[in-house]
Specification:
Organism: Gluconacetobacter entanii
Strand order of the largest sheet: 5-4-1-6-7
Number of helices: 20
Distance between the termini: 65 Å
Strand content: 15-25%
Radius of gyration: 31 Å
Protein name: HAD-IIIC family phosphatase
InterPro entries: HAD-like_sf (IPR036412), HAD_sf (IPR023214), HAD_SF_ppase_IIIC (IPR010033)
Length: 578
């Protein structure tokens, strides 16, 4: 049988001697002491008794034990439905509950409702503490009892609120905070990964040994790039629930996505999934929740444990921050989304082509919005509909954070009919010149229909000629156009890593980019955040042999923190100005 997590007591001739409604009861000292011992083992207690609620409460308070019970069900009513109330209120499985009653009919009624529930008559009490099922685990502060007392208070408020469950959740002031210092809290995270079931969507377990589990975590985290991993703390107006969730997401797929059942039915799992940009979660086994749903009653704060800083000011929450870059921002984006309204402009795969936020696209926008330019885009089927959309063009953002890290991969092609040069990238081409790759070769290399026809490819071959692979002169002119469009805006520019990495050519390109971007940023009054402060050795890379483009999670966290500090100062200054 499973370990017991909750004991449900009958009262008359079980917890005490005698029958309350007949006027005479006697406390049983052993049972009263047992409540404290069980609570200190993390095992909670409830009541299912046919009595008058007020009378039973009065007697239990006189004995000094009323506060040891959670969700007491005391009424002149059938015991099966009352036990169901306890099961539903505690969110525990009946198999982890023990119902003690002196009446065999009541025990059988409980088993009728829940066949897996453990039941016993009062004779079990004499040896209960020696029974392995009641071993529990040390909880001298009775924290588990305290958490259920919080849940009990919420349950009462929920019943008092008129309307559906959403109204209750909206008044509960639920707050979550995202944290990334995994090693510091690894013991709790380890426990969550290996013990949670009902809200563990992926059910990937770790070894029980802590050191072995840490090694597995490190291996899992390094297998995909970009990857993020963090834990989630939760609180509401009723109390603080501590660390309740853990996630590991790489390449938009979740290796771990799990939550403690203590936050069940609060909408936390749905909220976090949406906040993390809805990664693919392969659900394993039974899970008692769906990730679908619109949750608008939860607030993200810096740290739910910090009462002095529980809420980010409305101005900061409404601040529109445009992150324009490649995998550096996809690795940092989740930090920003916890604080601001993020407008993400990241690489996009479309019809076998890679479209990145190249500076050339912004520079060519005006030409592509002429009648000839629009006709070119219409005839060239590979461009996505939102190809020219950018917060840089619309001016929608309050702050712009720019990374030019993807510029080393900019392949430049010139339109023969318009003279406009655009950046295009397709990893399945046989050569940079489109004429070097037949349609059949492209299909074979891609492995399936590339999303455009042979005649459309022939048009591409005729229309575009290869111009250059990252032309530094054109890049300088394009950066000037970009900065001129952002003149007067709050702009943060990342200084690229040009010292650490295995690819000397990329480091050289990054050095050339920095020698253009840094002086221009200073002229325009833009802020600079330098990767060089945090990338000092190969240990700071995503892997020791990385080209110098991808970095460790610690580097991304430090970069994001410095950027967010600038954003926060801007928010505070503007709030004062308003």
């Amino acid at each position: 049988m499973e370990p017991v997590r909750l004991v449900i007591w009958d009262l008359d001739e079980t917890f005490w001697s005698g029958t309350l409604s007949e006027g005479g009861i006697q406390p049983i000292e052993r049972n009263m002491a047992l409540l404290k011992t069980l609570s200190e083992r993390g095992i909670v207690n409830s009541i299912c008794s046919k009595n008058n609620f007020a009378d039973a409460e009065r007697e239990l308070k006189k004995m000094g034990v009323w506060d040891y019970f959670i969700f007491p069900q005391i009424a002149f009513a059938p015991k099966g439905p009352m036990i169901r109330e306890i099961v539903e209120a505690t969110n525990l499985r009946p198999e982890t509950m023990m119902f003690i009653d002196d009446n065999p009919m009541n025990l059988n009624e409980a088993l009728f409702f829940y066949p897996g529930m453990q039941v016993a008559d009062p004779s079990i009490v004499a040896t209960l503490l020696e029974d392995d099922r009641f071993r529990g685990k040390p909880d001298t502060g009775m924290e588990r009892l305290g958490r259920y007392k919080v849940l009990e208070e919420k349950h009462r408020d929920k019943k008092e609120i008129q309307g559906d469950n959403i109204n209750f959740l909206k008044q509960s002031n639920i707050r979550v905070s995202f944290h990334y210092d995994i090693e510091k809290e690894f013991d709790r995270i380890h426990e969550l990964v290996n013990r949670t079931n009902q809200l563990n969507f992926t059910k990937n377990r770790w070894p029980e040994n802590r050191e072995a589990a840490w090694d597995v975590f490190q291996k899992e985290f390094s297998e995909r790039f970009p990857a993020i991993s963090g834990y989630i703390k939760v609180s509401d107006k009723y109390g603080n629930y501590g660390i309740c969730g853990f996630f590991m997401i790489g390449e938009r797929r979740a290796t771990h996505f799990l939550f403690s059942c203590r936050i069940m039915s609060m909408g936390v799992e749905q909220f976090c999934w949406n906040h993390l940009m809805r990664p693919h979660v392969h659900v394993v086994g039974d899970v008692i929740s769906s990730l679908d749903g619109d949750v608008n009653w939860i607030t993200i704060v810096d740290d739910v444990d910090d009462d002095s800083n529980n809420f980010i000011h409305d101005y900061a929450k409404n601040l529109k921050v445009c992150l324009r870059g490649a995998c550096d921002f996809t690795s940092m984006e989740h930090y920003f989304r916890a604080r601001y309204n993020v407008l993400g402009e990241f690489p996009l795969a479309y019809k076998s082509w890679a479209f990145s936020p190249w500076v050339r696209t912004i520079a060519a926008t005006d030409a592509l919005q002429t009648p000839k330019g629009r006709e070119l885009l219409a005839r060239t089927s590979i461009f996505p509909e939102n190809y020219l959309e950018s917060a840089v063009i619309s001016g929608d953002a309050d702050i712009y954070v720019l990374s030019f890290s993807v510029e080393y991969a900019a392949h430049l092609y010139r339109s023969r009919s318009t003279g406009v040069t655009v950046s295009l990238c397709n990893d399945f081409l046989a050569g940079r010149d489109f004429s070097e790759t037949s349609y059949e070769t492209l299909v074979r290399n891609f492995g399936r229909d590339p999303g455009f026809s042979e005649s459309e490819w022939e048009f591409m071959q005729q229309e575009f000629e290869f111009f250059a692979h990252h032309d530094i002169g054109m890049f300088m002119a394009d950066v000037c156009k970009l900065f001129e469009k952002l003149k007067g805006k709050k702009v943060i520019v990342l200084v690229l890593n040009e010292r650490v990495g295995s690819d000397d050519w990329i480091k050289s390109v990054y050095g050339n980019i920095n020698r253009i971007v840094v002086p221009l940023s200073k002229i325009y009054g833009f802020d600079l955040v330098d990767y060089g402060k945090y990338v000092q050795s190969p240990e700071d890379l995503a892997s020791p042999d990385d080209h110098g483009v991808h970095f460790s999670r610690e580097v991304y966290l430090k970069m994001a923190t410095e950027i967010m500090n600038i954003c926060d100062r801007y928010a505070i200054e503007n709030e004062k100005a308003d």
